[in-house]
Each structure stands twice: as C-alpha cells, then as structure tokens.
Amino acid sequence: MSAVTREAVEACLRQFTDPHLDQDPVSAGCLREVDIQGARVAVRLELGYAAGLFKNGWAQMLQMALENLDGVDSAQVQVDCVIDSHQGQAQVPALAGVKNVIAVASGKGGVGKSTTAANLALALAREGARVGILDADIYGPSQGIMFGIAEGTRPEVREQKWFVPLEAHGVQVMSMAFLTDDNTPMVWRGPMVSGALLQLITQTAWNDLDYLVVDMPPGTGDIQLTLAQKVPVAGSVIVTTPQDLALLDAKKGVEMFRKVHIPVLGVVENMAVHICSNCGHAEHLFGEGGGEKLAAQYGVELLASLPLSMAIRMQADDGKPTTIADPESQIAMIYQDLARKVGARIALAGKPAMPSIEISED
Length: 362
Hints:
By secondary structure, this protein is α/β, with parallel strands linked by helices. It folds into two domains: 6-82 and 353-360, Fe-S cluster assembly (FSCA) (GMP Synthetase, Chain A, domain 3); 98-327, Rossmann fold (3-Layer(aba) Sandwich). It is 32% helix and 23% strand. It has an eight-stranded mixed β-sheet with strand order 8-9-5-10-4-11-12-15, with helices on both faces. Strands 3-2-1-16 form a four-stranded mixed β-sheet, covered by helices on one side. Strand 11 (233-240), helix 7 (244-259) and strand 12 form a beta-alpha-beta unit. The protein starts with 5 loop residues before the first helix and ends with a strand.
C-alpha cells in the first residue's frame, strides 16, 4: 500500500467542481487544512458564501472520493461557511453592522424585482446567513406585505437616532412604508427621495448582517445613481423578463452599475415560460431566451430563470414567499441555487484566498 501524499489528496479534490463557484475547491482557494495520519485523511474546506443546504452533501461526495484513493482507509471532510466583508465602491464608507450589500434592480417596473429580492433574502437566510432587506422602492414599497408585516406596524427608535428593523421569517426588514401611511402616495421629488432613503439606510440599526439585500426602485434615474454612489454595494443583480422592451431597460441597468464601478453578479429572468395548469403545455408568453442573450452580451451569468407562476404571486401576496411557503418545491430550489450563486460571486470578487495548512505524521 502506497503512502498517501498531499499531492494525491489535492488531485482527488480537483476532479470535483463546486457548482456555485464553477471551480474545483483547490483552485477556488477553499482548501484550508490537510491532515494525513497514515491511512487516515482529514480535510477542511472553507466556503466564502452561505451554503447550509449544500455543504453536507458536498462534504459527503468529497469524502467518498478520498476514501477511494489508494492507501486511504478512512477520510473526513469538514466544510465551513465563513462570510467575509467585501469591499464596495472606493471612497464609500461601510455600513455599520453590514458585511455585504446586494442591490436587486430592474430597468422597469413589473418584472418581479421585489419578489426576487424577497425570495433571495429568505433563501440566503435558509442557507444559514444573517440577512436583512431594505425596501428602497419608495414609490411602491411592497416588502412589508411580502413578509407578512401587519399594516401600521412601526419600528422602535433607539437613542432618538436609530430605527430598529422589524423581523419576519428570520430576516431583518426595513421600509419607508413602515414610517408612512400605506394609503398615502409619496409625492416627492428626486432629491427628497434620495435624502430620505440615505437617512433610512444609514440610520437603521442593522444587527450583524452577512448580507443586506436592497430592493432598488425600478429605472436608472437620479435616485438609483445616488444610492449606487452612496451605499457600499458588493454586487448587483439585474431582474428582467424575456420581452424586448424589458431587456432594453435591463441593459440600461447593467450599464448604470458598470459606470459606478459596482460588479453585476448576473441576471435573473422572470416569467420565462408559462406551463398551462390544465394541459401542461409550455408557452413562452414574453419571448424566449432573452435573459441568456442579455447575459451573453454583457459577459455576465444568467443566475436563474423562473416560470410565470400563479403560486409565486399568491404566496408573496399572502406574506409567505415561495422560499418559505413551499421550501421543497422546484421553484424554491431555484431561489436557493440563486442565493448560493450570488454569495459565491461576491466571494470570488473579494479577498484573495488564504494559504492552506498541511499536517502529517512525518
């Protein structure tokens, strides 16, 4: 029986690709420790993104592969998730209590941006992250409804300076709607809105968040630019539908983030296909392949493609979005994969990998 070497262990791990990082764990810099004690091997990996629903299966797969190595009697693989703070735009100060800010944006309204933001936040929380969501869509705030927060609920005020975010489904939630009457429209000019939102963001007492998801207003005007320039955003997600008009506006959103040096993590395509509930026939009501074309044109990833589904709408209206209303459904699994991909993209764009440690009995 030949002696087990670190090179053999690494070569074994390199055969497997993390589906969220699109790299093997060694090349991605996830390998932290290799402990070789005769025929026993112990490996520790560290993922830079929330992957609570993925890491155990990933560890088991790698363990089985290592135990098939010549000279290995038993193997142990430990996978930890450690979410670091990643730098946003230069010269923009960090938010207190927040490691990473994710902007969810769209070029136009009506494409499912707020629903995507809510399910993304909830999916990140299900993966084990500490998550908050800020409803920055000031003219049409909807996160309070989606999270089942009763109308008229107000946040506590701490030290006459800080708003304490509300909590629902394990996510910290803050919205301008919590400070105003739901039936009164916000008839404000752009500078007033920008100032109010910046005050809301910076004066909310976020409690040790790994990710803050910001549901941006639709469009690419003054409000969006102000937020993009004043809030330390680690990455942005563009939401669109396949139809040409939505894609045209989504392109403007991509260009806006690039001009203010915010990474575009990828594109989410909503309403990609409709499946008839009676006969099962699939129809592309809003066109086909639009999200893929947009992603290819700008060299970004199509992070998720979701169907036109009545369940998504009904569950969000009932205050329990799909991710928690039906967590084992196919649609919920798409949102979970989206959450892991978004976290992985932020981690890849962040800090360089730490060196790994080797321990052997020699």
